[in-house]
């Protein structure tokens, strides 16, 4: 059985604000260690439960955060930027299930460091469905028939996961006080929880269905200001909805929508004055 693990950083145990997740800040190196250890708890338990292959995808920022030398020796790791499918690079129909570790709530929602890809995004939609990184990644997994079995992060990420994916297992390693403050488990206790929840998620896999994406989806991204929308709308096939900062793109499938989202958000970050 092959198992896929996408590891973000904002939802990792004890990480409360940007100083833990920004490579230029003083807490980042501590954050990398905690992120790697947290991923490793899930990897180790997946092998313990009979998985024969585990692929870990570093899914935060420039995607070069995990300390590979600390991971289970039998794991394989996707590391670095640019990846055509970013947070779900390498995920395909050969996997029996996926875990999202270190995940956070979507933009404009309550939750520690909540956002969707970039801080200039207010909301993202597939058709009428509001989604964040978690939802978009789950839809890509669903395209390949892969169920998301486990979501680990803060309490708000868990709530989002439970609304999206019936019967998903969640591991809450910290509770939101504000967007930059949390009440957290210690790393040791979080490790125990993650191993327990990984075991539970794999045992429950027959009860979780893939999140099936719609055919020919319409991607809509609402940006924080019009300049970001203008940049995003430079991508061919997009248009700004009149009177809004929403940029729309008609996609042939969820994979095209995902790559369009990556391009639009990268373009939007070129805005120099907000």
The biggest sheet amounts to: 7 strands, mixed
Strand percentage, roughly? 15-25%
Provide the CATH architecture of the largest domain. 3-Layer(aba) Sandwich
In DSSP terms (H or I, runs of 4 or more residues), the helix count works out at 6
For the record, what is the CATH homologous superfamily label of the largest domain?
A: Dipeptide transport protein
Number of domains: 2
CATH topology name of the largest domain: Rossmann fold
For the record, the CATH class of the largest domain is Alpha Beta
Average pLDDT works out at 98
Provide the gyration radius in Å: 18 Å
Describe this structure in words.
By secondary structure, the chain is of the alpha/beta class. It has 2 domains: 2-110 and 133-207, Dipeptide transport protein (Rossmann fold, 3-Layer(aba) Sandwich); 218-270, 2-Layer Sandwich (Gyrase A, domain 2), CATH 3.30.1360.130. It has 6 helices and 12 strands. It has a 7-stranded mixed β-sheet with strand order 3-2-1-4-7-8-9, sandwiched between helices. It has a 5-stranded antiparallel β-sheet with strand order 6-5-10-12-11. Helix 1 links the parallel strand 1 (2-7) and strand 2 (53-58). The radius of gyration is 18 Å and the shape is globular. The protein starts with a strand and ends in a 6-residue tail after the last helix.
């Amino acid at each position: 059985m092959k198992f896929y693990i996408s590891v973000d950083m904002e939802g990792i145990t004890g990480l409360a604000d940007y100083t833990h997740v920004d490579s230029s800040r003083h807490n980042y190196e501590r954050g990398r260690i905690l992120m790697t250890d947290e991923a490793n708890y899930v990897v180790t338990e997946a092998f313990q439960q009979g998985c024969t292959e585990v692929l870990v995808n570093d899914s935060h920022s420039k995607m070069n955060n995990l300390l590979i030398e600390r991971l289970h020796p039998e794991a394989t790791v996707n590391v670095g930027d640019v990846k055509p499918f970013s947070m779900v690079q390498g995920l395909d129909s050969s996997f029996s299930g996926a875990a999202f570790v270190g995940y956070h709530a979507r933009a404009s929602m309550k939750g520690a460091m909540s956002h969707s890809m970039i801080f200039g995004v207010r909301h993202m939609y597939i058709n009428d469905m509001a989604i964040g990184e978690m939802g978009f990644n789950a839809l890509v997994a669903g395209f390949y028939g892969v169920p998301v079995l486990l979501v680990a992060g803060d309490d708000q990420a868990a709530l989002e996961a439970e609304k999206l994916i019936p019967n998903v297992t969640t591991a809450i390693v910290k509770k939101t006080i504000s967007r930059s403050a949390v009440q957290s488990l210690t790393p040791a206790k979080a490790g125990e929880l993650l191993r327990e929840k990984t075991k539970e998620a794999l045992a429950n896999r027959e009860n979780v269905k893939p999140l099936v994406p719609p055919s020919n989806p319409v991607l809509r991204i609402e940006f924080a200001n019009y300049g970001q929308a203008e940049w995003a709308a430079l991508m061919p096939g997009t248009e700004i909805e009149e009177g809004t900062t929403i940029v729309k793109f008609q996609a042939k499938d969820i994979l095209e929508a995902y790559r369009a989202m990556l391009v639009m958000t990268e373009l939007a970050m070129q805005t120099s004055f907000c």
